[in-house]
Amino acid sequence: MGGGGPDEDDNRWPPWLKPLLTEQFFVQCKHHVDFHKTECNMFCLDCMNGALCSFCLAHHKDHRYIQIRRSSYHDVIRVSEIQKYLDISGVQTYVINSAKIVFLNQRPQPRLGKGVTNTCEVCDRSLVDSFRFCSLGCKIIGTSKNFRKKKRERLLHMGMALDSEDSCSSTSHGKPNNNVPSFIPSTPPPTSVNYRTAKRRKGIPHRAPMGGLIVEF
């Protein structure tokens, strides 16, 4: 069949997951502006009609809904709530206020700390060794067929480039290159001298012993 149908990767996830990850929470509820504490930090998995405040839940009594929380200005959700509806294996968990949580989306990390041995497969954020992703959003991206295909192509291209570099090094030097690949430029060859234009320094002629040739230095 032709294109235009639903993406196969989309069918792997519940329909409410992507709307949840793209929703903006902790804003003032436009339906209850005259009430106190009407910050929108709820999401209905059945209706998927945007962020809700606690007063909105009166219309979702028999629905599945979850509460979004904040940690360092990033949206998180408690593992005890989300794992009822979603497989979060491979996503790093954290403990905040005695509750285990996961982040909804990736967080920028300018540089890795020293000794980091494991990073998120999507955004390269440092992780504990037993995890693959830093957030739910990264798991969606990292497990998609398109992402895995591009990753394989990138690794294949890198492998071919390294093989070509090793082959050239082995041919030119007569021995294999066992150095770790890096982007540091190799040592440049010695600068050639143009003997036609180079100015010769005149010196005192010295006669070689035993009647040899006269050599100037």
From TrEMBL:
Chain ranges passing through the membrane: none
Name used for this protein in its record: PLATZ transcription factor family protein
Biased composition (Polar residues): 167-181
Species of origin: Hibiscus sabdariffa
Pfam family, one: PLATZ
InterPro entries: PLATZ
UniProt xrefs under PANTHER family: PLATZ TRANSCRIPTION FACTOR FAMILY PROTEIN
Region (Disordered): 166-206
